[in-house]
Amino acid sequence: MTRGWTRHDRVMRALPVDADRIRAAWLGRISGCQLGKPVEVLSMLKGKAALDAYLEATDDLPLRDYVTLDADAPGGKLVEGIGKACCRGHQTRAEPDDDINYTVLSLLLLESRGADFDTEDVARMWLQLLPAGMTFTAERAAYRTLLDRGAEHFAQGAPAGFDLAECSDNEFNDWIGAQIRTDLYGWVSPGRPERAAAMARRDAALSHRGEGVHGAVFVAALGAAIPACDDLEAAIDAALEHVPAGSGAAEAVRLGRELAGADDAVARLHAHYDGLSPVHTLNNLAIVVWALCGAGGDYGAAVGEAVAAGWDTDCNGATVGGLFGLTGAPIDERWLAPWRGRVGLSLAGEGEQSLDDLVARTVEVATRIA
């Protein structure tokens, strides 16, 4: 029987806040994001073959350290233009990225509103702190609707005929945006995947529907389940209870887990999801689960394989890294040294934070809402 579960009702018990796991989650998420950031645009615009060609030319395969910068390699100009400051030997801090912006926004939301926040609180937080220029796809569409249709509502507190659900009525609402926003709800809910799932669902609902919400819920629930389970398999099973069994998200999780350790896993995943956007929820969720399940407790293998697999490289590196940190397996401090604990942000009033401060604040809010 898995630790933390009762045999009959399968109710998971809340666990005490573990500062070491929260630190590892922040470290894993930020480092994984910085690993994938230099090759994000290359992967999305040029595809897996172009990503492979660059990493082979720089002798970075298997990917187990930050990406090498070589402007003369195939695709090197894109890497240099987009991600030079995240490449090996060029880092001085963790560069600003939407993946980390949203994690900090979740922290700020919990600090100000507690665990019972609603979707309108998320919208207000965006309008107050999130620059529109740092939003993409579904988030940008939702933001545009907030500005066009919701201005009077939020300025005067009057309904003004505005339904917040209009924001999620957009063509990108099953893409990856919500899935990259919800990690922290799991971090602060150890042993309580139902609470993490509920918070993720309310956050995701601002911009996403259907599979976009299911992916966000699964990631948050998995983060909450990992510390309370004996192994990753049990935690995945626990998290799956919070998404519809017949959903594409559940199928992506099952496929990623099934392919862990298979030599042709990445090729099969790309074939299975051929035609989906490189920033869709489902293909990237399958990569996340596959990379986690196949890492064998090796952080470098987990984030390195997730990034080298293609599609949304920085998002998957970040999500895998944060979840890995919760497992209790070690993350070598060499991943931290290049960015020196400095975390760049592009939020109003939050230009840069330190890793230590983010950890302390997360521990404090997790303890308070427990």
Report on the structure:
There is one protein chain. This protein has 370 residues and is mainly alpha-helical. Helix content is 55%, strand content 3%. The protein has a two-stranded antiparallel sheet. Strand 1 (342-347) and strand 2 form a beta hairpin. Helix 15 runs antiparallel to helix 16 (299-308). The longest helix is centred in the N-terminal third of the chain and has 18 residues, at 19-36. The two termini are 25 Å apart. Residues 1-10 have low confidence and may be disordered.
Structural class comes to: mainly alpha
Bin the strand percentage. Answer: under 5%
Tally the helices: 18
Tell me the number of strands: 2
Instruction: Summarize the amount of helix as a percent range.
Output: 40-55%
Low-confidence stretches: 1-10
Question: Would you kindly provide a brief summary of this structure?
Answer:
This protein is an all-alpha fold. Helix content is 55%, strand content 3%. A two-stranded antiparallel sheet has the order 1-2.
Set down the secondary structure blueprint.
Layout: H1 19-36, H2 40-46, H3 48-57, H4 76-83, H5 98-113, H6 119-129, H7 137-149, H8 151-156, H9 183-187, H10 193-204, H11 211-225, H12 232-240, H13 248-258, H14 265-272, H15 281-294, H16 299-308, H17 313-326, E1 342-347, E2 350-354, H18 355-369
Antiparallel strand pairs: 1-2
List the keywords:
mainly alpha, two-stranded antiparallel sheet, 370 residues, disordered N terminus, 18 helices, 2 strands
